[in-house]
Amino acid sequence: MLNRLSLVKVWLPLIVLAKALSINFPASAQIIQTNPQEIIQTNPQQIIRTNPQTQDLPQERLRQQQEERNQQTQERMNETWLRQNSQQPQQQIRQQQEFTRQRQDMLRQQQLRLQQEETRLQQQDFSQQQQLRIQQQQLRQDQQIRQQQQFRLQEQIRQQQLR
């Protein structure tokens, strides 16, 4: 897009300049034909009188046409420039919006992964605590069983001593 814009910025003024040059030099753009015999047969006073009048009107028309073309060309250039420069910020805005959307998606995914990891760690911690409780409970039960066995053994020993 940048290369295309650069090309337009370089070539457009050259094209306008070429058109303006062809308008500024009507001899190259339009050949004005005159009949040399008419000029020779006429009185030089008439040439002076008639030539400026006949040449002034076409030259004035050419000058006005040239000004109109220049103005139209300038307006087209301005419209093109405005269109391109209004499209570029819009495209930049779209690109920024897309970048922001992608970044937000990435942040959401990271947040989701962190929450999943936190949940996994909490479950792991809960499992470890559960296992610890079970082990403690088994240890208490084992202690109670030993105490009961020891008490029975002492009771048996005392019973035997009594006999």
Structure in words:
The radius of gyration is 51 Å and the shape is rod-shaped. Helices cover 93% and strands 0% of the residues. It is an all-alpha fold and 163 residues long. It has helices spanning 2-24, 26-29, 36-41, 44-162. The longest helix is centred in the middle third of the chain and has 119 residues, at 44-162. The protein starts with a helix and ends with a helix. The relative contact order is 0.05. Helix 1 packs antiparallel against helix 4 (44-162). It has a domain at 1-24 and 56-119.
Give me some keywords for this one.
mainly alpha, 163 residues, rod-shaped, 4 helices, 93% helix
Give the arrangement of secondary structure elements.
Blueprint: H1 2-24, H2 26-29, H3 36-41, H4 44-162
Roughly what fraction of the amino acids lie in strands? under 5%
Low-pLDDT segments, ≥5 res: 27-33, 38-52
Count of helix runs:
4
Largest sheet: none
Cα radius of gyration in angstroms: 51 Å
Distance between the termini: 112 Å
How much helical structure, as a percent, in the residues?
over 70%
H/E element sequence: HHHH
| Overall average pLDDT | 79
Instruction: Estimate the global geometry from the Cα principal axes.
Output: rod-shaped
Q: What's a concise summary of this model?
A:
This protein is mainly alpha-helical and 163 residues long. The protein is built from 4 helices and no strands.
